[in-house]
Design a protein that fits this description.
disordered N terminus; globular; six-stranded antiparallel beta barrel; about 700 residues
């Protein structure tokens, strides 16, 4: 590591160092006892520092979280420098070493790392973590950040430390010695950053017992986390892969156009002049790692080493710990490639990752194609013979896949014949916009509806409490062991965004969406906005024609596999929903998706949904937009595409969305992308009861 702060540094480099500091501080958090409550600045509950390593994941020291209660801690963070602190509960998901009976007299044993999973999704910044293997640290400096107590107050601090060597040699607990600065109590668990490359390389472990400085654990030690004995099929089988796949997609998506003016880690790395592997720029590297993260991880470390060992003109070094994920393999190439062949080596590696054996689901085929497009674009400056070889290899692999008959869709049974459902109907009172009339019924598949309860003139804000008892009674009548009945919420178009799935029957109960399938239906299709908009150029569609189109779309969507179309967001940039004429031209298998329902940048949400329903769609997915203005949308786009495209068909969507909500409220980070997800599933062959005789208007 070299010192990048010489007197000849350019203005751009100095500005990049300032931006680097801001990004590091934004991602550095405090770890507290779970009883922190509203006393967010109470030093007595403070345990130590940590930092966001991926969305909803915090990396810290094991000895820091050991002060918590039952693997539960509180994470205190700030979204912006001018805003106050926020607190979110966290659960310790993994520690290194993994089994320590009690802290040793000399301190917690190396590597002393812990991953904390947030119990609820929040918006925050994440650091960029180096994918390079452990380097030899000679003379140089690192930047650090952490929290401490000064004068009875909690304060964040940062600074530079000199690198003085390592402790541990070849052992799995090797640490970096750092010094020439005081490390006060509390900073343990904070990030250690290479200021030359602009990336996190370690975690502060301890301070020196005598004198200044302390020790830092290399970030690569996370590779020693225990792996599943039967191999890894999806990233969620392995906490290491889950964290770093989410990390790499986050930084890839942050480079997309957005409303935020804040620089990204790749922006500042470009200003610093960092060039990973001497051949890729920071943006290119981030895009490639994001493409890797869209694919399943290596099944085993051995399979990854076999790929690296098969690369032409490359000698695989002996590394401890060994590379574990696709990003780690790329990092190995940085330090061991010949300069004149570095780009070809990276492209050969990408081709091997692309061709790794895996189930060929639609979303994975799309991810492989996106990686292939990156390879084609990046190889344009190379010789024609090499480019031709890439195309030939791609064609051969595709032919082999077709020859093996690998199924595109996972096997699965079709859903059973629909049974009973509970119907909640909400009718607006146009003359009293803050009130509604409502009823709860039990609906049979043959169309028979038994009304159990109805009320008039209920305040909308009181509706969740008023419907709780009637819904509980209806569920008791219909639920079977292990098969909770579905709730159909028939809502007027201005209230389709009502968060019925988040209502609770009792204060200590789960949200309805986590208890059972909850879908939305539109009870006033004849009053949708935009009814006069031409359906096709020069034509006007009647209500009967719209209903015919709707039934035909429903039949064709359920007769074959579904596919998504995000209508209001293009890589994080808000877009207006297309006109009815264009929507009617979408393929029959399309499930429209709204990423930013509630982000009223162009129009009212009811108008946008109205056009979609006018175009004949009865299955629509959206999420209620609660994110920060600079939040990225990539995880939602990716997640909903996997659920719809890789599912067993549209008929499974109510159960699949229910499963996501169960995982979300169980605190599983793989489902956090679905926070606020809603599903309109409005079967035209099961029409809603006539609203005219439900409750007569005065």
């Amino acid at each position: 590591m070299t010192d990048g702060h010489g007197g000849g540094a350019s203005y751009g480099v100095h500005a990049a160092h300032h931006a680097l500091r801001e990004l590091v501080l934004a991602a550095t958090v405090r770890i507290h006892h779970t009883g922190v409550g509203y006393a967010l600045d109470e030093p007595g509950t403070f345990l130590g520092s940590g930092f966001f390593i991926a969305p909803n994941w915090v990396l810290t020291c094991a000895h820091v979280v050991n002060g918590g209660e039952g693997d539960e801690v509180a994470v205190v963070y700030q979204t912006d420098p001018g805003q106050g602190p926020c607190v979110v509960p966290g659960q310790v998901a993994a520690t290194l070493p993994e089994h320590v009976e009690r802290p040793l007299p000399g301190g917690w044993p190396a590597p002393d790392l812990a991953l904390v999973r947030l119990r609820e999704p929040v918006g925050h910044d994440c650091v960029y973590v180096s994918e390079r293997p452990a380097a030899h640290y000679g003379e140089g400096r690192v930047f650090y950040a952490g929290w401490t107590v000064t004068g009875g107050q909690l304060q964040i601090l940062d600074g530079f430390l000199s690198v003085q060597g390592t402790i541990g040699g070849w052992s799995a607990g090797v640490q970096m010695r750092i010094g020439q600065n005081d490390l006060p109590p509390g900073v343990s668990g904070g990030p250690v950053i290479d200021p030359v490359r602009g990336e996190v390389v370690g975690v502060l472990k301890s301070r020196a017992a005598h004198g200044t400085g302390g020790t830092s654990t290399g970030i690569e030690r996370l590779r020693t986390l225990q792996a599943p004995p039967d191999g890894v099929r999806t990233e969620h089988d392995d906490v290491y892969q889950a964290v770093f796949h989410a990390h790499d997609r986050y930084h890839r998506d942050r480079q997309q156009p957005s409303d935020s003016r804040r620089p990204t880690w790749a922006d500042l790395q470009g200003e610093l002049g960092a060039r990973p592997g001497r051949t890729l720029g920071p943006e290119e590297r981030g895009e490639l790692l994001g493409r890797f993260a869209d694919l399943p991880p290596p099944v085993t470390t051995r399979s990854l080493l076999d790929i690296l060992d098969s690369l032409p003109n490359f000698q695989l070094p002996t590394l401890v710990p060994a590379p574990r994920g696709w990003r780690d393999g790329l990092g190995v190439l940085y330090e061991n490639a010949r300069h004149d062949g570095a780009l070809k080596l990276v492209l050969d590696y990408a081709m091997q990752v692309m061709a790794a054996e895996r189930p060929a689901t639609p979303s994975l085929l799309e991810a492989e194609q996106a990686l292939w497009e990156w390879v084609k674009q990046t190889s344009t400056g190379l010789d024609s013979g090499y480019r031709h070889g890439l195309a030939r290899r791609r064609a051969e692999w595709l032919g082999q896949r077709r020859g093996t008959g690998t199924p595109v869709w996972p096997a699965g049974e079709r859903p059973a014949t629909p049974g009973l459902s509970v119907l909640l109907e909400v009718l607006p009172r146009g003359w009293e916009p803050d009130r509604c009339d409502w009823s709860v019924s039990v609906a049979a598949p043959d169309g028979d509806v038994t009304r159990l309860h109805e009320e008039e003139r209920t305040l909308l804000e009181d509706l969740p409490a008023r419907v709780a008892a009637p819904l509980a009674e209806a569920f008791r009548r219909c639920d079977e062991p292990g098969r909770p009945v579905a709730l159909h919420a028939a809502l007027p178009h201005p209230l389709l965004g009502l968060a019925v799935d988040e209502w609770r029957l009792r204060p200590d109960g789960l949200p309805l969406g986590a208890e059972r399938p909850v879908v939305v239906r539109c009870c006033d299709r004849d009053q949708l906005p935009g009814a006069g908009e031409p359906g096709m150029p020069g034509t006007q569609w009647s209500g009967a024609e719209e209903e015919t189109e709707r039934r035909d779309r429903w039949r064709r969507l359920h007769a074959r596999d579904a596919g998504t179309e995000v209508l209001d967001c293009d890589d994080g940039v808000r877009e207006p929903v297309p006109a009815v004429a264009r929507l009617r031209g979408l393929p029959p298998r399309t499930v429209p998706v709204l990423c930013r329902y509630g982000d009223r940048r162009y129009e009212d949400d009811a108008a946008a949904l109205g056009r979609i329903l006018h175009a004949g769609f009865s299955v629509v997915v959206w999420r209620r937009w609660h994110s920060r203005p600079d939040a990225v949308c990539g995880e939602f786009h990716r997640g909903v595409r996997q659920v719809v495209d890789d599912g067993h068909g549209a008929a499974f969507l109510p159960d699949l969305v229910h499963g996501l909500r169960v995982k979300r409220y169980a605190g599983l980070t793989e489902a956090y992308w679905a926070d606020g997800i809603a599903l309109l599933y409005d079967d035209p062959h099961q029409p809603l009861p006539g609203t005219g005789d439900l409750l007569e208007a005065p």
